[in-house]
Amino acid sequence: MTNREWYERACRSLVGGVNSPVRAWGAVGGTPRFFLRGRGAVLEDAEGREVLDYVCSWGPLILGHACPEVVRAVGEAAGRSTSFGAPCPGEVELAEAVKRRFPSIEKIRFVSSGTEATMTALRLMRGVTGREWIVKFAGNYHGHSDSLLVAAGSGALTFGVPTSPGIPASVAEKTLVLPYNDPEAAEDLFARLGKDIAGVVVEPWAGNMGLVPPAPGFLETLRDLTARHGALLAFDEVITGFRVPEGGVQQRIGLTPDLTCLGKVVGGGMPVGALGGGAELMDRLAPLGPVYQAGTLSGNPVSMACGLATLEVLERPGTYETLEARGRQLEEGLSDAARSAGLPLSVTRLGSVLGLFFSPRVPASLEEVKATRGDLYPAFFHGMMDRGHAFAPSAFEALFVSSAHTEEQIASTVRGAAEVFRTLAPQGPGKEGRS
Ligand SMILES: *Cc1c(COP(=O)(O)O)cnc(C)c1O
């Protein structure tokens, strides 16, 4: 069956043919590809065409597809049972592996997605402080729970408004939405409402509006404000966690949040999320504390084995060096190719996660991201896909390199990008050398 035939069949049984909206290619147009298998950095679609994968399941596959050690661990775990609904050793071992990387985490609760990790962080922050208001930042994504699927409303107090029908305004307005990288806005808000704010949730590098680094002092201000006003600070490291050798952004910059949300890499491609923090705070969750949280498949033995095998391979000497080298090669290659084509492009990078902006400078906030030439993205996406390089089917998504990407594969992607950039450049091809 062709991709189109699969897609038409899918549309008869699945909403929009997909189980997560971005997969429908609505933002770039065309028929989504259906994938049959992956090996390392290479994906094979329903028509037998191979592409180099820079989505890597939106981050979890830091070792690439079907890493042999991970596949073996998953198979062995599944052979012992796909679920116990009771304690099992894998949960303890993965918790210990996470704690080795994140000194701020003394206790962990595993869940089945990043969405649940942040949702639980909010409940815990509210439950512990007895306050209701949460602060988030425009352009940060924390999954699709009601309290976090909100955007900045109009007006000075920036009460959140729902970004989807079905979210009560009374829930959304308990979330205050501030611009990213604007410490003064956070200071103003805390000066006015600090005593009612339960906590702040932030992506320490924003990975859902491209990849936007934190401005100097921004995260430090949030740490200081929350501490002074008796509020809690949660770092959403669902994307950034395990992407740097230090563990997360928090160790890299030496700033300790009260809570850390993890997902994606921690499950190695199986459905895993985690919430972690100091023991005193985490022990307020049930069964030790009053804040309720539960899950039929939480700590699932197959998922835990997948996460554990992934972290074990990651910790081998040389893996992070490879990730850093491949990430840098792609960053420099794309930057040089765009410069040669006369196309303004800014590339951001945290280890093996990259952001591309069709703009001469790196944006610092959602507003600045929206002002870049995102309209060039669909042509870039299709130009690259036609040449066998799969980027995310939506502008302003991060791209991911795995340890399975080879130097030659990345070089071929850079050559492909050089061709595509020339078709996108305002002056057209051949600008270089003309006077
Ligand atoms: C992907 C993501 C989430 C949500 O995780 P899911 O597993 O898709 O629910 C939360 N926060 C961040 C920063 C993410 O990138």
Question: Would you kindly provide a written description of the structure presented here, covering whatever features stand out?
Answer:
Helix 11 (319-341) packs parallel to helix 14 (407-424). The longest helix has 23 residues, at 319-341. The protein folds into two domains: 3-66 and 318-424, Aspartate Aminotransferase, domain 1 (Alpha-Beta Complex); 68-315, Aspartate Aminotransferase, domain 2, CATH 3.40.640. The strands form four sheets. The chain has a seven-stranded mixed beta sheet with strand order 4-12-11-10-9-5-8, with helices on both faces. The protein has a four-stranded mixed beta sheet with strand order 1-2-3-15. Helices cover 36% and strands 15% of the residues. The protein has 435 residues and is of the alpha/beta class. It binds pyridoxal-5'-phosphate. Pyridoxal-5'-phosphate binds at residues 113-115, 118, 141-143, 203, 207-208, 236, 238-239, 263, 273.
